[in-house]
Amino acid sequence: NPQASPVLGIVQPPVVPAAQQPGRNTNVLKHLAGVLRSLFKIRSSRYFRYPVDTIALNIPNYYDVVKHAMDLTTIKRRLRNNYYWNANDALADFEQIFDNCRLFFARGTKIEVAGRRLREQFYRRISQVDMDNEVPRAGTRPRVWSDYEILDDSDSDSESEGEPEVSEEKKVMETVAKLHNWNVYLIEKFHCQKLLHCLTKRKRRHINWPFNSIDLWSGYCQRRPYNHEIFRIDWHTLNTRLKSNEFQSFNDFVRVISLMFHKARTYLARNKLLIRAVKRLDRVLRKRVDKYRYSILTMKSQSSRYRNKTAFAVASLL
Question: What sign does the CA torsion over 191, 194, 198, 199 have?
Fold first, then answer.
């Protein structure tokens, strides 16, 4: 939705669902409300609890840069008013807070660091929530339409009145099967972000500089037939693809980084300084990968009991 104009330096996003597009309350949204309550207790969240007051903070250009304002209190009120249709909608608002922080505040500043810490805490907590089987809770009404194929519970649909009950069960199972495995996805994406942050740390700028921009390769490449447009990967591109959910798993992310290192060693072999930096960075990668894979397995095993409970609940409904 288009952002409203600031009133006294503040933009308050809507918190009540539109009449033609009401939300609902689901088991996963209930768990997200619990995660939100825990975020309010974290010290790093103090900058993101309420809408940004550009007058009090003396940042008059904030809403010129940030086009979609969001804060934790707005999400809290939306959850209370059944604004969201499913967990994806709420997760998008959480991610909007972190995107706004990175967009406006320079890296390394106090608020930007607090935003990164809060984001890390958020994904650590959200990894414990089972999002595989999201079902509406009793007493909520479905939205008229949504971005996802959700079962129509309306009794006025004459075309569905003659369908046998078994087809309804099949319909539910097909819908559940199409839901993305958010639990596993968020765990692996969280570790992808940690690995990228590890490789691009400021203290490693003396070895990670070859991948600051793919355009640097044009000057160092010794094999002119190589087409730089075929494989354009640098730190910025990796971060953009990660935010766009283009990587299917942690292993897929590691594979692309390893391929990036391999391309550098192959086509820039005559530059000893650059190759030395790539080799040292590759050692850092190999050292961290096993550690992160073990952490992924640990977090998945911790969340298994939530998956089992939700699967039992869904089975009892069918």
Answer: positive
